[in-house]
Amino acid sequence: DFCLGQVFSKDKTFRPRKRFEPGTQRFELYKRAQASLKSGLDLRKVVQLPEGESINDWIAVHVVDFFNRINLIYGTVSEFCSEKTCPIMSGGPRYEYRWQDGDQYKKPTKLPALIYMNLLMNWIESLINNEDIFPTRVGVPFPKNFQQVCKKILSRLFRVFVHVYIHHFDIICNMGAEAHINTCYKHYYYFISEFTLIDQSELRPLKEMTERICH
């Protein structure tokens, strides 16, 4: 049974946050990335790979961070995103997203946005917590398909922005959260652009929004 009470905690966080272990290389990278963000530097510069750092570590840090942030963004609108208001996971009439995970849903399946989001966050969380894909121990290499996995995660996280911007933007504006979400989106957009992590065709649903806030 799909029980809403299990999905949402009282503080609006859609999921508990995934944290970096203090003392690890990735924790240091994360702190550096956060410090650059807070310093008011141009976001295009903030996403660039720091000299001497590993690209996979840099991508891992950002994938986890975007997962946390986008989780919170959806958490803020989730109570307004019901099976009645959003019976299909979509971005307007032209874009519809179906869920497939090769496990419970072997074929692309139409689902209400809320259920889609829950499955998506569970799926990403299980990948991030999988030591074979996101190794946390020093000296353990990333798998060969690491960037492919990250591209898939990032392209699915993009769908959360699509749904929130197109279907729940009025709620975001009413909450006074527009600037915060725009900054998060810009950060995400510059990052995926810097390392070509998403196919341009995937970005079409937010083309006008992207031009307005990122160029």
TrEMBL record:
Classification via Gene3D superfamilies: MOB kinase activator
Membrane-crossing residue ranges in chain numbering: none
Signal peptide: none
Annotated Zn(2+) binding sites: 81, 86, 163, 168
Keywords associated with the record: Kinase, Metal-binding, Transferase, Zinc
InterPro entries given in the database record: MOB_kinase_act_fam, MOB_kinase_act_sf
SMART domains documented for this protein: Mob1_phocein
UniProt keyword Calcium present: no
Molecular function (Gene Ontology), one example: kinase activity
Keyword Metal-binding appears in the UniProt entry: yes
Name listed for the protein in its UniProt record: MOB kinase activator 3C
Organism taxonomic ancestry: Eukaryota, Metazoa, Chordata, Craniata, Vertebrata
